[in-house]
Design goal:
Blueprint: H1 15-22, H2 28-36, H3 42-48, H4 50-60, H5 66-77, H6 86-95
Helix pairs in contact: 1-2, 4-5
C-alpha cells in the first residue's frame, strides 16, 4: 500500500507576495530575500526595523551588503537610497559593525 506524503505547510511564494515588497522600492531579487525572512510589506519592515532585518538577511544570505541596509532605511525614511544622509549611513554601519 502506497502511503501519501503530507503536503508541505510552507507558504508558496507567488508574484503577489514579492510584488508587495517590490511596491516599496525593492527590486525582485531583494524582494525575494525579504520574503524569505518574513517581510512582505512596508509595515512588516517598519515593525522589524532596517537593522534587525539586515541581521536576519545576513544570517540567511551572508553575501548581503550594506547597500541593502541603506535601501531599507531609505524606504522607512521615504527617500531614495542614494539620497540617504551620510550621518544615517554612518550610524547604520556602526550599529551592524559587530555583526
Amino acid at each position: 500500500m502506497k502511503m501519501k506524503t503530507p503536503q508541505s505547510t510552507k507558504v508558496k511564494k507567488t508574484e503577489s507576495t514579492s510584488k508587495n515588497t517590490q511596491e516599496i522600492g525593492i527590486g525582485p531579487k531583494s524582494s525575494k530575500k525579504l520574503n524569505a525572512i518574513g517581510i512582505f510589506t512596508r509595515s512588516d519592515l517598519e515593525r522589524v526595523g532596517s537593522v534587525n532585518a539586515y541581521m536576519l538577511l545576513k544570517r540567511t544570505f551572508p553575501n548581503v551588503t550594506l547597500n541593502f541596509l541603506y535601501a531599507m532605511e531609505a524606504i522607512l525614511m521615504d527617500v531614495h537610497w542614494t539620497k540617504l544622509p551620510k550621518d544615517v549611513e554612518a550610524r547604520l554601519k556602526e550599529e551592524v559593525s559587530f555583526f
